[in-house]
Design goal:
The structure holds two protein chains of two kinds. Chain A folds into two domains: 168 residues, no CATH class; 136 residues, Cyclophilin-like (Cyclophilin). Chain A is 14% helix and 31% strand. In chain A, a hairpin with a 3-residue loop joins strand 13 and strand 14. In chain B, helix 5 crosses helix 6. Chain B has two domains: 79 residues, Gyrase A, domain 2; 203 residues, Cyclophilin, CATH 2.40.100. In chain B, a hairpin with a 3-residue loop joins strand 1 and strand 2. By secondary structure, chain B is α+β, with helices and mostly antiparallel strands.
C-alpha cells in the first residue's frame, strides 16, 4: 500500500508527534506543528494518535492512492476533492485504489494534516518519522516530499469512514489571534515600559515563518535594562551567554522583531528570551499565515496549566464522541 | 556565581548558573544536569546542559512545575560538591582558515556585518588588538578549546578557549543573522568558537572550514557509525591549521572512508587547570601529539 505524490504542494512533509530526547545534541523534537489537528486526523481514521501523516503548508498536494483506505484532513480550511467530488475537512471518508485527492486554495489557517488509515510507514530515524530537513532525518531521505515520491502506508482499519468532528471541537486561532505568554527566562532584561509595550502592541506575522520559528513585526522596539554585558555574551544588550532555548520561547534579537521558536527549533543560542508561548497555544501558531494580526496575552502558570487542561479535555471529548 | 531558576513556559525549567561564562559555571551546570538525570523525576523528557546554564523539559501533568523547580533546586548543593574532574578526550580538528568557500559566504552577507569593508577575520583581528590576521589566527589555534555545549542545530559544538580570561578572544555576532552558512564552517561569537555541523542560518563570524564531518545522519562515515553526532560536552579540541592541498587530501580520505581523526584519551581537572593553565594545556597537547 502506498501513496503516490503527483504534486507535492509548497512544502509538504511526513510528521508524527516528534522525537523527544535529542535536544541536548541540537536535534529538535519536530513533529506536527499543530499537534491537535494531527491527533484528531489520526483519531478520525482509526490510527494511534502518534501515527505519521502529512503536513502541508499553504498549498495541498495531489495524492494518488494505490489501495482502498480511509482518509481524513484536519487543520486549515482548504477545499478538497476526491476524483472531482468535494469532501469535507475534519471528517473521515473512504478512498478506493486509483482515486486522486486534490486541494483548492487555502481559505483560513496555514497547515492541513492528512491522515491515512494504517499511518505513513516510512523508516523512522531516532524513533520518529518526523521530517527534519536541516538534520536530514525522518520523512523520505530526510527531506520534504517531491513529485513522484512513493510513500509507504501501513495496514489500517477500513471501518472508520464517515465520522465528523463537531465544529465546536475544531480548534484554530481567533481574529486577531491571541497567543498566551508566560513571562520568564530573561524577562527581567526588559524595562518595565518594554514589558508592558510588548503586550499592548498588535504584532503581525512576518514572511519569515516556518517550522523552526515564527517572526513578528509591527510592535515597538523593546528597551533593555542597562548593564555591563557579562563576559562571553557579546556586546548587544539582547545578547546572553549562549544557552538552551525553550520550545515556544520568544527571542527578540536587537529588541526589534520577536521570534517564537517552534517544533524544529534551534536548541540554543545567544539571544535573550522574554518568556514562552504556553504549551496549549503552540498548535495555534502553526495555523497563522504571514500578515495575520497577533496579540500576545500575559498569563501566569496557573492559567497556563488550566489552558493545557482545556485543550486536553477537548481531545478527550473528541475521542469519546468518535469512539 | 549566583544561580537563577526560571520557567520557560509550562514545560521547561531553566537554570542559569551564572550570567557570565566560566569553566566553573560550565562544570556546575554539567554536574547539576547529571544530578537531575540520576534523580529520575517523573515527567522529565529532556535535560540540556549549555555553557553556563541548563534546561529541563518536562510534562507538567506528571509533576507540577513548582514541584519540579523545587526538586531541581534541592540538587544544587550536591552538584556544587561534585568532583570537577572529567575523563574525556582531546581531538585534533584540521581548519582551513580564510578558505574560498567561507570567504564567498562572508562577502555575500556583508550588509549584515559590523564592518562591511573587510572580512570577518580582518574585523576580529582588529577589535582584539592584533596587528595582522595571521597573528589572530595563531591565537585562535595555539591553545586547546573545551566543548561547553552541543546544540543550536544537530551536533554543533560550542567551544571555550582554555586560556586566561584576559587572553580570550571576543567577537560580537553578526548584526543580523545570515540566512546561509557553509557546512563545517568554523565560526566565532561572543567568547565561543563553533563548527557549523550542517548548512544553514547563522550569526557567528566565519573564520574557516574543516574537512572533517561531525554530523552524519546516514552514519556512513566510519567514526560516526556508532552515533551520528561526533561531539559531546567536555570534549577538548585542538585546531590544526591546514592549506588547500591538505584540505583536499582529507576531503578525499573522508570520501574513501579512510580518514581517522587524531584523538587521545585525557583527564581534565578544573582545579589543576585553574592553578596552572599553561602547564595543563601543554600536558593535553603532549597527549595528543603522542596519539
Amino acid at each position: 500500500m502506498a501513496l503516490k505524490i503527483n504534486k507535492p504542494g509548497l512544502s509538504t512533509s511526513v510528521q508524527d508527534l516528534g522525537r523527544p530526547g535529542y535536544f541536548h545534541l541540537g536535534i529538535p523534537i519536530g513533529g506536527a506543528m499543530d499537534r491537535f489537528a494531527m491527533r484528531v486526523a489520526n483519531i478520525l481514521v482509526g490510527n494511534p494518535e502518534d501515527a505519521a501523516g502529512l503536513e502541508a503548508v499553504f498549498m495541498g498536494p495531489e495524492i494518488e492512492f494505490a489501495k482502498d483506505c480511509v482518509v481524513a484532513v484536519t487543520g486549515a480550511e482548504m477545499p478538497m476533492t476526491l476524483d472531482g467530488e468535494a469532501k469535507e475537512g475534519w471528517s473521515s471518508f473512504s478512498v478506493k485504489a486509483g482515486q486522486k485527492l486534490g486541494f483548492g486554495f487555502l481559505k483560513s489557517g496555514a497547515r492541513i494534516y492528512i491522515a491515512v488509515s494504517g499511518g505513513i510507514a516510512t523508516e523512522p530515524d531516532l524513533g520518529s518519522r518526523s521530517t527534519y530537513p536541516i538534520g536530514a532525518l525522518g520523512g523520505i531521505e530526510g527531506r520534504t516530499i517531491t513529485e513522484g515520491d512513493i510513500i509507504p502506508v501501513g495496514n489500517g482499519d477500513p471501518s472508520s469512514a464517515g465520522q465528523t468532528v463537531a465544529s465546536r471541537l475544531r480548534r484554530g486561532p481567533g481574529k486577531p489571534a491571541a497567543l498566551r505568554v508566560l513571562p520568564g527566562l530573561y524577562w527581567n532584561r526588559l524595562t518595565e515600559a518594554a514589558q508592558n509595550g510588548f503586550f499592548e502592541d498588535i504584532w503581525t506575522v512576518a514572511p519569515e515563518a516556518d517550522r523552526m520559528g515564527y517572526r513578528f513585526k509591527g510592535g515597538r522596539a523593546l528597551e533593555f535594562v542597562e548593564r555591563e554585558q557579562p563576559f562571553g555574551a557579546g556586546a548587544d544588550p539582547s545578547n546572553i551567554v549562549d544557552g538552551c532555548y525553550s520550545y515556544g520561547s520568544i527571542q527578540v534579537p536587537g529588541g526589534t522583531e520577536p521570534i517564537v521558536l517552534h517544533r524544529d527549533a534551534v536548541s540554543g543560542g545567544g539571544y535573550f528570551t522574554l518568556g514562552a508561548i504556553i504549551s496549549a497555544d503552540m498548535d495555534l501558531i502553526g495555523q497563522l499565515q504571514p500578515n495575520t494580526s497577533v496579540k500576545f496575552v500575559k498569563v501566569d502558570m496557573e492559567q497556563a496549566l488550566n489552558a493545557r487542561n482545556e485543550r486536553r479535555a477537548m481531545l478527550r471529548q473528541i475521542r469519546e464522541e468518535l469512539a | 556565581m549566583k544561580t537563577r531558576y526560571t520557567f520557560g513556559g509550562d514545560e521547561h525549567v531553566y537554570i542559569e548558573m551564572d550570567e557570565e561564562m566560566s569553566l566553573d559555571a560550565f562544570f556546575k551546570s554539567l554536574s547539576m544536569s547529571n544530578a537531575v538525570r540520576d534523580a529520575n523525576i517523573p515527567g522529565v523528557t529532556e535535560i540540556c546542559p549549555a555553557n553556563a546554564s541548563f534546561q529541563v523539559k518536562f510534562d507538567p501533568d506528571a509533576t507540577h512545575p513548582d514541584e519540579m523547580l523545587k526538586r531541581i533546586q534541592e540538587l544544587e548543593n550536591k552538584a556544587e560538591n561534585a568532583e570537577k574532574r572529567l575523563s574525556t578526550r582531546i581531538i585534533e580538528i584540521p581548519v582551513f582558515y580564510q578558505d574560498p568557500q567561507t570567504r564567498d559566504c562572508v562577502m555575500r552577507f556583508r550588509e549584515r556585518h559590523q564592518d562591511p569593508s573587510g572580512t570577518d577575520l580582518d574585523y576580529a583581528a582588529r577589535i582584539n588588538g592584533y596587528d595582522s590576521v595571521d597573528a589572530f589566527i595563531e591565537a585562535h589555534h595555539s591553545q586547546p578549546w573545551f566543548v561547553s555545549m552541543v546544540g543550536f542545530v544537530a551536533g554543533l559544538p560550542f567551544l571555550y578557549q582554555l586560556v586566561e580570561r584576559e587572553k580570550q578572544l571576543q567577537v560580537p555576532k553578526y548584526l543580523r543573522p545570515r540566512t546561509d552558512t557553509p557546512k563545517l564552517t568554523v565560526g566565532y561569537g561572543g567568547c565561543f568558537s563553533c563548527i557549523y555541523s550542517v548548512r544553514g542560518a547563522g550569526g557567528y563570524q566565519m573564520f574557516g572550514i574543516t574537512p572533517m564531518p561531525i554530523y552524519d545522519p546516514k552514519q556512513e562515515v566510519g567514526y560516526l557509525k556508532d552515533f551520528m553526532v561526533f561531539f559531546k560536552p567536555g570534549d577538548i579540541v585542538k585546531w590544526k591549521p591546514i592549506d588547500q592541498t591538505e584540505y583536499d587530501r582529507i576531503t578525499a580520505a573522508v570520501e574513501a572512508d579512510t580518514y581517522k581523526p587524531r584523538i587521545a584519551e585525557v583527564e581534565f581537572d578544573l582545579e589543576e587547570f585553574n592553578a596552572d593553565m599553561a602547564g595543563t594545556s601543554a600536558k593535553l597537547m603532549e597527549a595528543l601529539n603522542g596519539a
